[in-house]
Amino acid sequence: MDHTENSGWEDRLRQQIRMSLEAKQAFLDDASLFAELVRACTMAEETCRHGHRILIAGNGGSAADAQHIAAELVSRFFFDRPALSALALTTDTSILTAIGNDYGFEHVFSRQIEAHGRAGDLFMAISTSGNSPNIIAAIEAARKRSMRIIGLTGRSGGGMAPLCDCCIRVASDSTPRIQEGHILVGHLIAAHVEQAMFGSGNTAR
């Protein structure tokens, strides 16, 4: 295969990289988007500082993001420090399948929030479309328990945007680009909470 034959798919790779960079650049260029990011970091810090828990949920790739973000908080991000209370609602197959079988898939997260959510806790709701029925049901359950809600979604915000206390809408309509933005947000939140609560450490990671 010569360079001419390669150029088509190589150009597509470059375009996807550019799209990813543009979605991330928007956090610096869009003042309102950056303000929501700052607000989310502050809300997460306040939750942890007062001894409350962060619950996180999403579907598919967003489920993996929920687990990734919880791991950064419970374990460590840049440096050693006390564990932070965070729980991904996407990991227990017995609970997920029991709720799905008994109540329906729409309730797999809301039922867990009924079990674990308390006033003062924070729910991080992840949906690239903003319209996932089980995420919207979970947001509604969290609101009934006086929890605060951070939404991570795409450009449109979908149906969940007006239900969230803070909604970070990644500046893209492409699911992969939105998901890349979501994990960036998760990393920024984890880094902020760790630094704000436990001071400087090795940030070279």
Radius of gyration: 18 Å
Instruction: Give the CATH level 1 class.
Output: Alpha Beta
How would you describe the oligomerization state of the chains in this entry? single chain
At CATH's second level, what is the architecture? 3-Layer(aba) Sandwich
Number of helices, counting only DSSP H or I runs of 4 residues or more: 7
Describe, in plain words, how this protein is organized in 3D.
The protein has 205 residues and is α/β, with parallel strands linked by helices. The chain has a single domain (3-198), classed as 3-Layer(aba) Sandwich (Rossmann fold), CATH 3.40.50.10490. The chain has helices at residues 3-29, 31-49, 61-74, 93-102, 110-116, 133-144, 175-198, and strands at residues 54-57, 86-88, 122-126, 148-153, 166-169. Strands 2-1-3-4-5 form a five-stranded parallel beta sheet, sandwiched between helices. Helix 3 (61-74) links the parallel strand 1 and strand 2 (86-88). 39% of the residues are buried. The mean pLDDT is 95.
List keywords for this structure.
205 residues; alpha/beta; Rossmann fold; 5-stranded parallel beta sheet; 7 helices; 5 strands; globular
Summarize the helices and strands and which ones pair or pack.
Blueprint: H1 3-29, H2 31-49, E1 54-57, H3 61-74, E2 86-88, H4 93-102, H5 110-116, E3 122-126, H6 133-144, E4 148-153, E5 166-169, H7 175-198
Parallel strand pairs: 1-2, 1-3, 3-4, 4-5
Helix pairs in contact: 1-2, 1-7, 2-7, 3-7, 5-6
